[in-house]
């Protein structure tokens, strides 16, 4: 099995819910929520890709970076490359329904671990989803992170307990899901939260806590106040609010404000090695990648995920050679073309 | 009946006069006047959508806006959301002719009232149009606004009399129709008007008077001089003059000049909740939406209009949560991403 | 016969040499020289349209311009609208060959005169072309202008003599044809010319002399030195050099430098009424329109041209109402939206 | 055989590996590496074309440049036009495999020499490629340049020896190939190099030495330090790193820094005469053209290449007339439109 095979089979197995486009940029699937697209015009999904594309990089070839180190250390773990699989769920609702949630998440978890990185697993209105995700995680010694929706605090804290028992090495909350007001109709309201409410959640666990869904400097500063260990700069893949800027648009100002005070993860539109390097150069400590894990797990199970990660690792390495970066820490804004 | 059904049937029933595109942005129908498109290259229609799209919004999730209030009070009425149905007419000329003017306008009126907002009804060269529109309005206790074309003053005033009798709670004139010089060939000239001429019209009625078709700061100031209660910043849906800027392009300067001195309505390219919020943030007190009422009434009669409005209300609410706005009055330019 | 008929038949009769696109902007025909397109990537043709489109206009409705005057006086003539038909030739080479040069040019001449404006007729490597064009012009009392290619001076002057005899009321030279170096292979070299060489030509006739093909401020000033009566700001429809700016890009600086010292005509991408008004607002005294005369003469002979001009006249008038311009002289940069 | 025939046959003979698009801009083939496209999204290939297109040129017609001189002198040779054929190889891997490497490169070499310019020939992981290329070159008295990949120094120097024996009049290294880390898997590592390492290579030969793959000002200065005779500003046709700027984006700053200290060649997106002139105006001494030699040799063997070069020569001459440039040295930034 090679990468083109994985993509071809992914396209088939996703049954039209995702076209596995040559360039995954939110155009074809615009408005497909449920589905794999961005909300409304799809502009927030597209902005993630476009905002990254706006940055051009300096190609450099006269230097001695012949074998760069792509690894990082975070949350007490070593990652071969500075990448997490983002929490994406809903095989029936969003991915065409050919595979079960358990099949899908097991492939992502195993593929990530085989590929030298760690997965984040997600949560939905149906309680059993998170539980199954945690069961799958437990089979792999809990080598992953659980991301919980912004329910009422006591429910969030209850679910964190379950993640701890499954052995997750970090937990988080995708607070950017707070606009899914239709969940309230099912008696499961999600909601934005004040600093105090988030503090209560952070204080409820000894695990590193990740707050996902920060898109402004003011809220990045509030996130620091909550005591969270990390933020994810994310617009939820463009799936909750149309017409936000792209993650790479807002990342530099956020990094300028809070870099060093809190770990910064970036999530949005990252597809290949140079995208990872750009996000690091713009201020991220590591990145999340979402949709490609759906495509590759649907196309090649855990092997598909592993093949994708091997390619990505090689691509990151090549890009580091061509930009003259010895290590991830060595990546700075010298990489970015200033025009 | 659900929303995709409404759109599918709308597409069928509009018989090619409108393609009910995934994103309604004036591309497919460019030049289709008569029809549902923008004049010439369609650039003024497209500019309405593009000018709104240029503004990006700040997604915020750390706050206590858990249940925002979407309602406003205007012209002595309460609206569930800050939206009016714009005056659009001509089922035969512009909409494929499957339904009569009476059917269409009745559905729009009933759907709006059921959905918690109010309709504006329009006027054309054929006198019977306005009369039928007013008859339809009367059946619903006149719960709407009549917008009259800029005929010679005595004819305008005569028509205002009819609107008053039908019980309309406000009247207006779409002065941006003054470029339809072919109407003069039918002995029904429309024309631009001086401040004095408009004053005469405003003074002829006790109802709130709305001047529709303002696109510059200088004319917004002149509108204040006329004594009108409200302006509609509008390029007539891009249907009278090619190559104007978009409404969202000109709105901020107009709002800066006359906000508080006159009610500001914005009309152009508004499709979903975040578009409404953008227009308010840019200075509008409320907005007009046009083409979607044609699509949804043709697709699902009054029920189609109601389904659209319920979705829109939910979407506005979700967008207010995700931008941290407690109420419509609370929406200001903090919502807008400054880059 | 109505305008859609003219366009439909034009498309058929042009036999694929021109697609008579909904918006004529140089995209479909890019590179088609010979043919009706722009040279190479077609960027210079497209730039003409795009540069005009970049300018947006202020729609105004509160004023007393109820019946604007669209006429101008130039070269001792009165034109109903400030428009000339540009010199375009080559029915066999460029237009699919269905009609003869004589048929085509006669229709353009008659249609223009019937429509209240005047045609320019062109010249090619084959001497008989200009001669036939002049014969056609003579049949209509020479009510037009002859534009001659930049041959060696004695040949240019010889052809001016012929134009005088045909009764043309002005003559000119499209010096922008000087890059057609393949003509030299046929023993008919065209060439750029110095100020002195142009002076000799200007001095050889008592008719008003028009220099067509000025795209820079420095050469506009040189044109004034030559004693010519008018320049045409033109990139030859994008047909001689790829990647020039658009005419509307360079017009304002040229007008600033030489307005009042020489008559300024603008030629490039003008399609409808508001385009004419934009060019005047940017500094032109009148404009040339090219390709639409090919489409409409091929589609409806002289009647097609007349139908087009009637529409254009009505469109100019409507646009003057909607921008508040009493007369062509009254058009200034208040019309242009400043952003 | 005429040029359209060459292109038509090229399209057929390239068997889908290249579509020979109307405008060759990297869109259709994006991601096709192997193949003829740019890496990943193809953005670096596209940036080459787009960066050139951003520059517009001043068309000038009032001057005495009636017969411009298109030739230059470089590396002891006279070139009819300031153009080299870029080193492109891999008929099986990249070009559909219909012709052998020997056939292809012989056609390019002969076509170039017949057309008054010189070819560069390339190198790959398979040693026999360069050897065959050099054999082909030898048949034509070594009238060309050999460009070697950045292997370990001793291997590079060994290959330079072979090029000298074949009679090449200059040699070079495409150091931008250093990111092809998969070559290491075949026991043939390529690598970036320090100034000292490059110096060793430069000092190993008496031939002029060309360093290909410079995209930043800092590395252009380092290139001067190495003692190389020339740099090629190049992103390797966009085939090694996604999201670099275009060559025409970075060329002006590089020229400002090192012009006169080292010969500057530019390679990226050049298709026609005005593109050549733009690159010269931006600071290049001469240019490399790549893909068109593949298309035209596959479409018409050496005759196809010659036909292309004749057209290009004529196009450069016409463009020099229309921009008023007497000679290549005479081309400066007066040619560029400043907006």
From TrEMBL, chains A, B, C, D:
The keyword Oxidoreductase applies. Pfam families: FMN_dh. Keywords: Flavoprotein, FMN, Oxidoreductase. The keyword Flavoprotein applies. InterPro entries: Aldolase_TIM, Alpha-hydoxy_acid_DH_FMN, FMN-dep_DH, FMN_HAD. Gene3D superfamilies: Aldolase class I. Its cofactor is FMN. Glyoxylate binds at residue 239. PROSITE patterns: FMN_HYDROXY_ACID_DH_2. Residues 37-339 form the FMN hydroxy acid dehydrogenase domain. It catalyses: (S)-lactate + O2 = pyruvate + H2O2. GO terms for molecular function: FMN binding; oxidoreductase activity. FMN binds at residues 212, 234, 236, 267-271, 290-291. The active site is at residue 236. Belongs to the FMN-dependent alpha-hydroxy acid dehydrogenase family. This is L-lactate oxidase. It comes from Anaeromicrobium sediminis. The lineage of its organism: Bacteria, Bacillati, Bacillota, Clostridia, Peptostreptococcales.
